[in-house]
Amino acid sequence: MNFRQSLAAAWQKNNSLLCVGLDPDPAKFPAHLQGRDDAIFEFCKSIVDATADLVCSFKPQIAYFAARRAEDQLEALIAHIHERHPGIPVVLDSKRGDIGSTAEQYAVEAFERFGADAVTINPYMGRDSVEPYLAYPDKGVILLCRTSNPGGSDLQFLEIGNSGGEKLFERVARLVATEWNTTGQCALVVGATFPAEIARVRELTGDLPLLVPGIGAQGGDIEATVKAGRTADGTGLMINSSRAILYAGKGEDFAAAARRVALETRDAINRYR
Asked: Which InterPro entries does the record match to this protein (predicted)?
């Protein structure tokens, strides 16, 4: 199955719109993992195994691995997800954005080296910077649109000249949903901290999948997020939670604590579908 098909299947099989973000910070790991060479892999693997039946996707953030020279553990983690939990798509959160031949290498990195099912990228440099990722039609290409951070408004909310008031994030949504999504593999990132913009992006893009960070530690409202972004069949969303789930527990039972919070979050999301 391609990314869109796998995502749709996971929405149904696990009755879930929850995406668990994997942002491993060794300083927050339980004591029994401290100092281990494979601590990042073991921590993330335990979280994955405890929550895989509750999610529609996993989203490892590459910086948390690369900063600690743990790219090999990221490769092993994605391979583990595919082997032990087939059908759960993995989104590599790398937010790459560059031109031509460099973008081609970033696509190789995401899809061939790490084996991710989808990747997040920055559309600021235009369509030709996106096309190398579209050359992998079975993979997902998730473009930043209206991000959850306060500074996103510095550019994304600006009105485009001679456009009748169209804002930059609206132009991105419209371009991605129409001109760029020629193979049907595109999705968008829209932050949970801006439910009105989620609703606007949904209006502009039809059933395009939306990756929605910002609930949990960032304070996004679950009810507002789901009501603004769900499609007619109650899907269409990957609602990401990272820190609130990963660090729900501090002891050797950290994975069980993560499962408990993941279950609570999934069920809270489902109440508004």
From this structure: Aldolase_TIM, OMPdecase_AS, OMPdecase_type-2, OMPdeCOase_dom, RibuloseP-bd_barrel
Residue 213 in contact with residue 240, Cβ under 8 Å? yes
How do residues 159-209 score in pLDDT, each as one tens digit? Answer: 997 778 899 999 999 999 999 999 999 999 999 888 999 999 999 999 999
> 119: which strand partners?
92, 141
Catalytic residue ranges: 95
CATH number for the domain that contains residue 64? 3.20.20.70
Q: Which domain, by its residues, includes 65?
A: 3-270
| Number of domains the chain is built from | 1
Sign (positive or negative) of CA dihedral 6, 18, 60, 218: positive
Residues 236, 240, 243, CA angle at the centre, nearest 5°?
A: 170
Radius of gyration of the chain measured on its C-alpha atoms: 18
Q: What is the pTM of this model?
A: 0.96
